[in-house]
Amino acid sequence: MVFTIKRGPTVVSVSPWPRFLERHLSYRKVVHSFGRSAGGRTGMSFVVENLFIKDGDSGMFPAGLCDKVLRLIKAEHPAARIEIEDYRRLQELMPIPDFSRIDELRPGQDEILLAVASSCGGLLVGGCGLGKTFLITQICRMYPTLNIVILSPRVSVVKTIYSNLTACLPSTAVAMIGGGSVCREKRRITVATTRSALKCDLKNCDLLLFDEAHNVGSNQIAEHLGYVERARRFGFTATPAGRSDGADLVMEAVFGPKLADIPYQDAVKNGLVTPIEVRVVDVVSSEYIPDSEMMTTRKRWNYWRNKSRNQEIARVALAFPADEQVLIMVETLEHALNLHKLLPEFTLVHYGSVSAERARRLGYSKDSLSIDKDKMDSYRSRFASGDLKKVIATMVWAEGVNFPGLSCLIRADGAPGEIRGEQIPGRLSRLSVGKDVGILIDFNDKFSPWAARRAAARMAFYRRRGWRTLPFSA
User: Which residues contact 356 (CB under 8 A, 6 or more apart)?
Assistant: First the structure.
């Protein structure tokens, strides 16, 4: 039997089409909806998403899955012959990098740059604090002639990358788009938010770098990247698995296989990140918690309005000296406001824009809750410098912020997912003089079976990451 594979820069075809591939090139996507489903239970359903198209006796799929498909065909049909027609212009797309232009690397970072230099695309995996912004800058320096597009979901990350690039490259070579910035002149390197991706020259770029690659599971972002015709694509992420909608396979489809993976223990050993230790607080609440199938209702009474739990969070937060930075992470503004009543000396940071109706429901005025862009930037820079000591923040600070001096983070969100489990504690892993360890405080919620299961999932994730776990003591 002979399989013919035609390999293009974005799409690959195979003929004849092996039917067994279909179960490997599809995934069961979780669809969340607000309100109750037709069955009266939680607003959640499942749909099968296919990452292939059949056309008669042949079929097509995203180029990032080509290596996976080749392995599957060889395993299923070991005696078959595979003929590959490669239509990628590899010599044009893979020039020899100039490593003499880059700065000194820390141990382990060279693995990332070598993977980029020797591959057409793939996932570059490393824990938070690895130095992704630094590595992206070095990649741009070692390819001085390529047209490069860098995308990130976070405006703060875009600004940081842009600042780093303009510090070592001519400002006329770098453009920033998004977050209120627009550049109408063509530049060799464009740094943009994912929302502004279509304003970049995706069609003619040679190299695409995507920060927080786990976000490409979003249909809109994946659709935008469909405009990339020939560029090599690399995605940086600390969490290659664990999307709540089940769309992890989309990452491989867009970028390709995992090329480099720096485990947490290796990163600590090589001095790339600060080690994290977990301190656990047992919570037994006497609050009445109504039983409900609605996720929002469950979270509200188990977490956001649970007076006993919130008082325990406040007790822990106040156990630290006034001159030590403490960051409390919550999921919603409602929870943040309830904690702020117990901790008025903490600064409240959230997404900033609040409708008048939502503010009214929360018992506040719109003006009292609104945070404009300048104030948000001020909070972030003051916390990064250490001038601001105590903050309660929603998920606006879960990713894309760099607080080197932060040594204590309190997780009050209660979420069990792996992406949050990696990203939120990752605020502690940045290196800083005098910081030997980052202390993550979480809560072993014993007041309801639902909360207990979610707490157990978080603790299990911490153990898998190799983070030392101890009881909290003031």
Answer: 366
User: In whole angstroms, what is the distance from residue 329 CA to residue 420 CA?
Assistant: 11
- Label residues 201-215 b or e (16+ Cβ within 10 Å = b): ebeebbbbbbbbbbb
Q: Please choose, from the candidates 447, 74, 433, the residue with its C-alpha nearest in 3D space to the C-alpha of residue 281.
A: 447
Quick one: CA torsion of 201, 203, 206, 207, rounded to 10 degrees? 70
Tell me what pLDDT residue 249 has: 87
Tokens of 84: 């590959």
Per-residue model confidence (pLDDT) at position 38: 42
| Domain ranges within the chain, ordered by starting residue | 2-88, 91-262, 274-471
* pTM score: 0.82
Question: In this structure, are residues 228 and 197 in contact, taking their beta carbons and an 8 Å threshold?
Answer: no
CATH topology of domain 91-262: Rossmann fold (3.40.50)
SS3 of the chain: helix, strand, coil, percent, to 5: 40, 25, 40
Calculate mean pLDDT across residues 5-30. 92
How far apart, in whole angstroms, are the C-alpha atoms of residue 227 and residue 412? 40
Give the HSE-up count for residue 331: Cα atoms under 13 Å, Cβ half-sphere: 15
pLDDT, tens digit (0-9, with 9 covering 90-100), for 305-359: 999 999 999 999 999 999 999 999 999 999 999 999 999 999 999 987 888 898 8
| Average pLDDT, integer, range 143-169 | 91
Structure-token pair, residue 119: 């591959």
Most confident of 31-35, 59-63, 90-94: 59-63
**3-class SS at 250?**
helix
Separation CA 104–CA 174 (nearest Å): 22
Could you give the angle at which helices 155-168 and 132-142 cross, rounded to 10 degrees?
40
The tokens of 435 are what?
């910081």
User: What is the rounded CA–CA span in Å between residue 384 and residue 102?
Assistant: 26
Percentage of the chain with pLDDT > 90?
Answer: 57
pLDDT, position 179: 76
Give domain 2-88's CATH number out of 3.30.780, 3.30.420, 2.40.50, 3.20.20.
3.30.780
